[in-house]
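Notebook entry, structure prediction.
Reason for the run: the old model in the group folder had no record of what sequence produced it. Starting over properly, with the input documented here first.
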Amino acid sequence: MEKTGLNALLSENQKAKNYFGSLPDYIQGGVMLHSSEITSEDDLHSCADMIKSEFAD
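New structure, fully documented this time:
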């Protein structure tokens, strides 16, 4: 089975993998909920920023 979305990005892009690994667990979990929509490093950063903003008050 071919990797798609977040899984493909993390397996092909070391910078994205390092960034994802540096995120807190709750943000990683939120990002994984949107994994099929994430196809680029920009998508990953945007999604993580959106989740961070939901928890910031």
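Summary: The chain has four helices and no strands.
The old model has been moved to the deprecated folder.
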